[in-house]
Design brief:
single chain; Metallo-beta-lactamase, Chain A; Nonspecific Lipid-transfer Protein, Chain A; 7-stranded mixed sheet; globular
């Protein structure tokens, strides 16, 4: 058997005669603190794990990155109970958070350095390559079929594609049978009135697909990893310009490549013993109808969130500030003092108050109700300052508003210490931390 089966969103399962290979299994529940929901809710962890157990074959799992629409804790908890023979693969990172977590759950996880080939079967291997912002891509050779899964990795320039082409060639691959790539925007894209910003982001995704097809020359391109919607009443408006299969087919950017682009719906199978293009052509029309219908019928889910008091928020920010300050030897307090970064002023919608968050002065209330940068609910602010990935999660799920065009950048800069802390920078890795500061400084000067 040489068969690839699409599961949902960014997950697919390959079955050979002697092993299973699975990537990014998020197939039920919500992601990003209930900010995203799967369009197709028919798949389940139980279904997939049952299929894995029925095969009675060793299972290999690759995670592209740590975001919750790829790294699903609920799936791992179910898998742990059933205990199939499983080996995980993850990219090399500064903090080894994912590998450490998996090992703590009694799973086996190998950290794979860039470009290293890992054998899966007699004629199958994979190679992982870290990209930007914590993402990674995977080149997979499965029983003679060459697959490139770029997932959420940003390939937006000719130079990006040339670098990747060189990486692929160094692995001895000179022809790609399948390219898997994302097709929709996947983070906050302006307030309700900023429709042009979302149109731009949607078109940018389509341009990237065209660029990848042109310079990587895959025989077949399968679009995936975008079968979600912004699911909260406060962020639901962000769906208004999202790319759908219908928009992909109408795209001028992709006009030349329409015969090479395909969609799959949950549980669709590709048999590698047959002509791949013909199989994909036979399935894509039904898959496109399936997804277009689900996009049209999407509705916000019920939202049960706890409201927090102003005192609770201030006290939690004290703990957050203390942790950041100690880990980075108060460097961010100094950077705020010399105005490299600025305090963040948050309008808390449900309690109708303004809080100023400062690495230098802590948290305090502002009396001027017009002096705010970001507006969000107290539950989302609490999430930001109590979770190691809090600010990043809220930026992805889009549950906030900005006052003006500069506020989003201010939000991102203020979140920098948390992102660095999460990625293992600080006292324990001073040299790497200095290099990261220099990289961020160059990026800011460039911007």
């Amino acid at each position: 058997m040489k068969q690839l089966q699409f599961i949902n969103h960014a997950a697919f399962l390959y079955e050979s005669k002697d092993f299973l290979f699975l990537c990014d299994p998020w197939i039920e529940g919500t992601a990003f603190n209930n900010g995203w929901c799967l369009l197709d809710k028919s798949t389940s962890n139980d279904q997939l794990i049952s299929k894995i157990l029925d095969s009675n074959k060793p299972l290999y799992i690759w995670y592209s990155h740590e975001h919750s629409d790829h790294f699903s804790i609920s799936f791992l908890e179910k898998l742990k109970l059933k205990k199939p023979k499983t080996k995980f693969f993850f990219q090399s990172t500064n903090d080894n958070r994912v590998a450490s977590y998996l090992n703590s759950k009694q799973f086996s996880c190998s950290i794979i350095e860039n470009g290293k080939k890992v054998k899966l079967g007699s004629n199958s291997w994979l190679s992982i390559y870290s990209w930007r912002n914590g993402d990674s891509l995977c080149i997979i050779h499965l029983d003679g079929i060459n697959i490139l899964n770029v997932n959420d990795c940003i390939l937006s320039t000719i130079k990006d594609c040339e670098i990747l082409r060189k990486i692929i060639n160094q692995l001895g691959i000179f022809s790609l049978d399948i390219l898997f790539t994302q097709f929709g925007y996947a983070s906050w894209c302006g307030n309700e009135e900023d429709v042009d910003q979302r149109i731009y982001e949607a078109n940018e995704k389509l341009k990237r697909i065209a660029l990848q097809i042109k310079f990587l020359s895959p025989k077949n391109t399968i679009l995936f990893a975008s079968f979600v919607y912004y699911a909260n009443k406060f962020n639901f408006y962000l769906n208004d310009q999202q790319n759908t299969p219908m928009k992909v087919r109408a795209s001028k950017e992709l006009e030349k490549f329409q015969d090479e682009i395909y969609f799959l719906k949950p549980w669709d199978k590709i048999n590698f013993d047959k002509e791949i293009s013909l199989t994909l052509k036979s399935k894509t029309l039904n898959a496109e109808k399936h997804w277009n219908t689900l996009y049209s019928n999407a509705n916000p889910i019920s939202n049960f969130t706890k409201n927090y008091t102003f005192i609770e928020l201030i006290n939690k920010f004290k703990l957050y500030k203390k942790k950041i300050s100690k880990n980075f030897l108060w460097i961010f307090s100094f950077l705020e003092l010399i105005r490299i970064i600025k305090p963040l002023r948050v309008k808390i919608i449900d309690i109708d108050r303004i809080i100023e968050l400062s690495y230098l002065n802590g948290a305090q209330e502002l009396n001027n109700y017009m002096r705010w940068d970001i507006a969000m609910y107290s539950s989302d602010l609490m999430f930001c300052i109590t979770k190691e990935y809090g600010f990043d999660c809220i930026h992805v799920n889009g549950r906030f508003r900005v006052k003006d065009v500069d506020s989003n950048s201010k939000f991102l800069y203020f979140a920098t210490p948390q992102n660095m802390f999460r990625n293992g920078f600080g006292l324990r890795k001073p040299i790497a931390t200095i290099k990261e500061f220099l990289r961020l400084a160059r990026r800011r000067l460039y911007l």
